[in-house]
Each structure stands twice: as C-alpha cells, then as structure tokens.
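I hope you will forgive my troubling you with a question about protein structure. The record follows directly beneath this note:
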Amino acid sequence: MSPLVSSSRRQADTPIGAGLVAIVLLSPILLATGCHGYMQTQTGNLMSSYAVEHMVPDMMASDDLNMACEAGVSMGGFLMSFARVTDPPQRAGLVTMLAAGMCAEAEAWEADLRQIRAVRDGRAFEARDARIAEQRAHALAAERFLASYLQLEGAFGTPSEMCPELEPEDELFYFLGLAAGLLAVVHDRAAEGAAQVPMDIPQQVARAAACLDNDRWWGGPLALQASIWATVPGASSEGDDPWSSLEAATAIGDAHGVRLARAFQVQILEASGQESQVREAIAAHAASCAVLPSHPDWQLLDSYATRMILHISDRAWTQDRGHRTPLGALGTFWQPPVEVEQYDDLFDDLLDDLDEEGAQEPLESQGTETQE
C-alpha cells in the first residue's frame, strides 16, 4: 500500500479527518444539487473545531510571537466569517483576535520609542507624527482586543456576580478573554477613547477573574484583579491590597514558567510612576527567566510577558541613551558616569585618550619645524 493511501486512511480514522473525507467525496453531489450552504456550514464547523483542538495548542506551545500575531491577522477575519453560515466560532475567534491585537500593540510600542527618540533629539514634528501613529495603533489594538472580549461574552455570557459553568478545557479561553478585555481598556485609554471600549469592562473582569484558579493559571487571575484594583478607583473591596496581591501572583507565575503576572506588575508599576520598583521587577523577571525556562506548553504566553516587560525596559533605555535595550541586557540599566573629579586615575585616563586623539596634527607640525 502506498504511504499516501495509508496516511489518508489514518487521517480518515479521526472525526475531523472523516469529516474532511466526507466533504471531498460528497462535494460533487452537493454542488450539483445546489447544497452549497451545507458545504459552507460543515466547513465552518470543521475549521472552528480544528482551530480550537489543534491550532490554539500549537500556537501556545510556540515562542514565535510574530508568527502568532500574523496568524491572528490572517485567520481572524476568515474564521469569523463562518458566523454567516453556522454558529459563530467564538472560542477560535477569541484567540485569533487576541493574537491580532498583539500585532497592533507592537506597532504602537515601536511608535512610542520613535517618539521618545524624537523628543530627546528635539525633533518636534517627528515626535508629533510618532505620537499620532502610536495613538492609531493603540486604537486598532483596542478594537481587536475588544473583539476578543466580545467573543468571550458570546461563548460564556457577560461576566457577572455569578460564575459561569466552565468545562476544564474552557478555562483557558475564559482567562485569555478576560485578559483581552483589560488590554482593550488599556489601549483605548492610550488612544484617548478612540475605540470607545466600555468602561465597565474592568469591573466585569475583576469579578470574573475570581472564578478561575490562580495556581492552575499561573497567578494570572489574581494579577488581573490586582491590576484593576490599583488603577480603577472604587474597584477594590476593603482589605484588597493590589501591590501585595501582585507580588503573590508573580511568585506563582515565576514558579510555573508563565510570567504574565510579572508583566502586569511591571506595567502597573510604571503607570503609577514607581521607577525604582519597575527596575527591580524587570531585573527579577530576567533573573527568573535565567533559571527557569518557559513552560513548554505555554511558551507563547511567557514570551508575550517578556515582550511586554522588554518594552518598558526599552522605554527606560531610550530615554537615557537614545536606543532600546541592548541584546541580552534585559534586567540591566544604563548608569550615569561616575564624577571624574572623585577619581584622579579615571580623569587622567580621559586626558590621555584626548591627547591620543589630537596627537597626530601637532606631531606633524612639530616635525615640520624640526626640518626647518
């Protein structure tokens, strides 16, 4: 038996494989009888199932953020279009729109760094242009993250005081959808409300995050809650301490090798102006990554956490030195030079360097005078 035939038979033994084979075999009959609607419905159902059962786990196990976000951009609209012919592919749409939001987010961060460099160098027009580009990208990111959150609402209902009945395999989608909702609010604020993200989403996310187990999901649910408590007035109850909660969440995430909680902590610390704590948290993240690699099943999420933290580091480096974090230097920061008057040897070395740089012309002149 040829390998191709054998492979085809093995694929046909699976439910999805059997469905694909059936569609291929029946397509001439169905098309001839005008049953193209049936074909489209079955294709949509199969694509949605495939995305949830295979594409999402494969994506989560990869550390290639760019490929993941590009897959979200290219596949998101295609998958969502099946809502026209069958049940909306809400779980698949939730993940693809979340991934697509990462692409727009990365564009916003690049424009942010460009603006910092322009301001630092006194290029006012370029700084203004970079600011506009940043706001546009933030608005697009907010729209995509909001679309992801709306898929959560469609699949599980609008978060309320009551927790939904979640199957174990649904909890990942629920957590990712809640994170998307918070990210939508963050980016909409940066875009000055251009995406019109509803402002009651943070409260919904804070309530719904309590429905998830912190240990199973790497401290992420508690980090979402604490981030909202720290930034939304009136969101916390008496006794809620956002900063200690963030520390507790980061300890869980660091231990699991999925450090999303640390990324939220760094962002909230920067937003609150706690510069020294920001640098300590970034250094702690780099130290954690050095001793514990990403969890193999969730490399994408840990890589995303690192990219979020790297952007905060890039901002600090760009403000200080005009360039982003050097390769391999995450967790370190540029230090101002030591005052040379306190160290005579350093001062002498500096003078020697200056003498060497300017030595060539005086020597030539001196040589001419000798010849004369």
